[in-house]
Structure formats: C-alpha cells, structure tokens
Specification:
Radius of gyration: 20 Å
Order of helices and strands: HHHEHEEEEHEE
Strand order of the largest sheet: 1-7-2-6
Number of strands: 7
Structural class: alpha+beta
Strand content: 15-25%
Length: about 170
C-alpha cells in the first residue's frame, strides 16, 4: 500500500487487485486508495502472462465502466428536472465554452462536421473539409479543459439517443 500510494498520489485511476487468499484479504484490509475496484481477479498473477492479466483486468474495468455509466444516467434523470441537462449540440457547445459542463457523454461513432466559435456558437458544415472539424469532439475538448468528466459511449447509452448528453454544473 505504501509503494502504491506514492505512485497513485493525485490520480483518479481505478486500481485492479490481482491476488489470491490470504494476500487478497490482507491487502484489502490495509489499503488506503479510494479507487480500489470492488471486484478482484482471484488468480495468482505470477502464473499469468501479460495478455492474460490485461484481459482479466479489462473485465473488472468493464464492470466499473457499466456502474459509472449507470450512475451518470441516473444523475442525468435527476438533474433534468432542475434544467441542468441538455442533449442539444448547440446548447452543449455554449455550456462547454463557458465551463458549465460537469459530465458529458458523447457518441464515439458519429462525426458532426462544423466549427464552434469563441462564444460557443456552432456552425455546421455540409461535410468534412480543411475548414471544419468534429463539433462533438470540440465540445468534448472544451469540457475537458474546464474539468468535466467526459465519456465516449455508444449512441444507445446516451440519454435521448443523440450525439451527446451533458449534465451541467448549474442551469444554463
């Protein structure tokens, strides 16, 4: 725990524990890292290849992602009644530009060509060109710059089924 504490200080990364008993229980009882995954890989890591370790860790990380996504969707529904959500690309662009986005879900498969100006106004383009870029990607970048949590997901995981869904820090 002491060695990992130094390595993970100031980070918000999940930690996947790969161990067998009794080390698994002992480590869980003394560890102090807030993002230790609740599920562990209960195999001796010395008997696993790097690719096997990665595959086992991925299943734990997938569980964490599903849980985080469910929490964001629940928060989205809660904040909807407070006028603190949007699925509108133009409104999300303005909110991201002015630091109002707290959490943002974006469709990983869609590209909306266009531009976003310094005031957050979206201008759509007929197609990709040297003068345009992905508007949703730009919104995600602006949200990240102001400390928002941004997740790339499939369209079916976005409330409203659009290009994006934003939870706002305050009504915007």
């Amino acid at each position: 725990d002491q060695a990992l504490r130094e390595l993970l200080a100031g980070r918000d990364l999940p930690l996947v524990l790969v161990a067998t008993e009794p080390m698994l229980s002992i480590y869980r009882s003394v560890q102090s890292y807030a993002r230790l995954a609740p599920t562990s890989v209960t195999t001796n890591p010395d008997s696993m290849s790097d690719s096997e370790l990665a595959a086992a860790a991925r299943s734990v990380l997938d569980e964490l992602f599903v849980a985080e996504l469910a929490g964001i969707k629940a928060l989205f529904e809660q904040r909807k009644g407070e006028r603190r959500t949007t699925t509108d690309v133009a409104q999300a662009a303005r909110a991201a530009t002015f630091g109002a986005v707290q959490k943002l879900l974006v469709d990983i498969d869609e590209v909306l060509p266009g531009t976003v100006d310094e005031e957050g106004k979206v201008t759509r383009a007929a197609g990709p060109s040297a003068a345009s870029y992905g508007v949703v990607d730009e919104i995600a970048g602006r949200a990240l710059l102001t400390g928002a949590r941004v997740l790339g997901v499939r369209r079916e995981d976005i409330p409203g089924g659009g290009s994006l869904a934003a939870i706002l820090r305050y009504p915007f």
